């Protein structure tokens, strides 16, 4: 496992996320069909394909610049709620990382914590509202220990949204009928953390 | 489900190319997904920009033209457009008098328009915003994303658009838009689910012989499912749901709106029942519009919107409008 994480690793993280979204697009859409409007997979696929393309074209040289460009690209291409939310997550995390050419896992954990905080403020969601926060918050905590712990925590957080009632976004209109379904946003957030663990391993 | 498409990925761009060909008085930027009145910016007049996911046609692109929207930004199917589109639209329509964003209350639309407003203001474009939230089927509470924007969007765009056409300043146009939204309530009913092109199968499961009362324009569930009802029974239910929420104290505009797959023959029959209930409840109808205006792809069903008006709003309703989907007095 690398001691410091450089721009190249962050680029591979985004590429791995693009591949994960491609692989899981149908599942994300299926989950979104149950409690949303059946487009989470196709929207994120469009966004992360654009991110991979933008990173190839511009080759930013610091981890912060990689995430800032990725976030900006998501905001410009995804739309819906997931565009601004994922875009803000990556952009804010990137800005927190500053100009460092390489960062430690602990520094990334802190920056990601700030990114998740920005998502919470933008979306106005609380833990337990059945959103992407339910995967991201435990992942940030666990990232202090290891990448793999973060992956496990994110997966568990996504799975733990099944019995919850949605209180934000389109799924909230379902009220109690949202119970029993895994949240698509928490599921894709777990993919993002999983992609990080994959490239950092 | 058989669809008249090439591939799902190009459905929005294909439709925009077709709109451009059919409506030479519109400037359609297919690449950047912005539909603009050809004569924009109109000197001294406030610009009206709306947008939202595609799949609700003619909303919003069909309402661009003299007396209504100055520009519209279509997103992917059922997905809010991105801030880049809105900023581009605002820049294209701003004459210096400012721009009103008409936003339907969905998490994605609100977030993207908020981001766009910040970016546009950095470019020295004055922005005001109205969020439309007229759907009484949803309880507005801390525990939902709030009431959805549905049929009242047409009333807001028509009435605020007419005010902008008359040369009212941004503050007045925004005030009228907000007044229209506050005085409007809607209720929708689905007789069948809709099918998004990307998924290719119905987005929710509505067994034959049942209907969804209080449905949203993306097929979001509403209040309850029941065994199929008659047009008469549905009109009673829908109008009473609206009146229970807000009882008008003056005459109203009525929109009897089709969701996409319900024939006009049925909509007009349903309108007769809506007018009957309104008369029975003592609500005076000033004007009525019947048709498919705020649709949900191929969903069968309808919605009712009531907007209480005053003299000014009635005059703005009757003012000339010249768009692809709504056109009178010109």
TrEMBL record, chain B:
Listed A to Z, the keywords are: Glycerol metabolism, Kinase, Transferase
Instruction: Name one cellular component (GO) term.
Output: cytosol
Instruction: Tell me which domain of life the UniProt entry assigns to the organism this sequence originates from.
Output: Bacteria
A single Pfam family it belongs to is Dak1
Which segments constitute the DhaK domain? Answer: 7-328
Keyword Kinase on entry: yes
Q: Which PANTHER family match?
A: TRIOKINASE/FMN CYCLASE, TRIOKINASE_FMN CYCLASE
Entry protein name: phosphoenolpyruvate--glycerone phosphotransferase
User: From which organism does this entry originate?
Assistant: Streptomyces beijiangensis
């Amino acid at each position: 496992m690398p001691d410091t994480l450089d721009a190249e690793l962050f680029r591979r993280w985004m590429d791995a996320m693009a591949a994960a979204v491609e692989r899981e697009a149908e599942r994300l859409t299926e989950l979104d069909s149950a409690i949303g409007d059946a487009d989470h997979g196709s929207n994120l696929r469009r966004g992360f394909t654009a991110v991979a393309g933008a990173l190839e074209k511009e080759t930013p040289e610091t981890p912060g610049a990689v995430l800032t460009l990725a976030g900006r690209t998501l905001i410009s291409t995804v739309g819906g709620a997931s565009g601004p939310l994922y875009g803000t997550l990556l952009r804010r995390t990137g800005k927190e990382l500053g100009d460092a050419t390489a960062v430690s896992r602990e520094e990334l954990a802190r920056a990601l914590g700030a990114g998740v905080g920005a998502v919470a403020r933008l979306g106005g969601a609380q833990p337990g509202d059945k959103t992407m926060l339910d995967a991201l918050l435990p992942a940030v905590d666990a990232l202090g220990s290891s990448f793999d712990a973060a992956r496990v925590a994110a997966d568990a957080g996504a799975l733990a949204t099944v019995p919850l009632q949605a209180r934000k976004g389109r799924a909230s209109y379902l009220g109690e009928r949202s119970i029993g379904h895994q949240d698509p946003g928490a599921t894709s957030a777990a993919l993002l953390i999983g992609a990080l663990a994959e490239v950092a391993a | 489900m058989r669809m008249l498409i090439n591939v799902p990925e190009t459905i929005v761009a294909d439709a925009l190319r077709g709109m451009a060909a059919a409506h030479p008085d519109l400037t359609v930027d297919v690449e950047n997904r912005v539909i603009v009145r050809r004569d924009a910016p109109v000197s001294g007049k406030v610009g009206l920009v709306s947008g939202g996911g595609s799949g609700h046609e003619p909303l919003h692109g069909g309402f661009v033209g003299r007396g209504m929207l100055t520009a519209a930004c279509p997103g992917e199917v059922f997905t809010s457009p991105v801030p880049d589109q809105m900023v581009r639209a605002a820049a294209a329509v701003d004459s210096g008098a400012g721009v009103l964003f008409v936003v339907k209350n969905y998490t994605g639309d609100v977030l993207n328009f908020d981001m766009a407003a910040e970016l546009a203001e950095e470019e020295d474009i004055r922005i005001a915003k109205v969020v439309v939230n007229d759907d009484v089927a949803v309880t507005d509470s801390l525990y939902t994303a709030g009431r959805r924007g549905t049929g009242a969007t047409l009333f807001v765009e028509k009435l605020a658009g007419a005010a902008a056409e008359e040369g009212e300043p941004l503050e007045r146009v925004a005030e009228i838009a907000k007044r229209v939204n506050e005085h409007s309530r809607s209720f929708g009913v689905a007789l069948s689910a809709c099918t998004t092109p990307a998924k290719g199968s119905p987005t929710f499961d509505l067994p034959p012989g049942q209907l969804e009362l209080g449905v949203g324009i993306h097929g979001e569930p509403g209040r309850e499912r029941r065994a199929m009802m008659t047009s008469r029974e549905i009109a009673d239910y829908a109008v009473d749901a609206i009146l229970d929420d807000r009882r008008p104290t003056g005459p109203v505009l009525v929109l009897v709106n089709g969701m996409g797959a319900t024939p006009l023959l049925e909509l007009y029959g349903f309108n007769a029942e809506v007018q009957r209930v309104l008369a029975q409840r003592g609500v005076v109808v000033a004007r009525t519009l019947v048709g498919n205006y705020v649709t949900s792809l191929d969903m069968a069903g309808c919605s009712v919107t009531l907007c209480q008006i005053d003299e000014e709003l009635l005059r703005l309703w009757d003012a000339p409008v010249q768009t692809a989907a709504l056109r009178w007095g010109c």
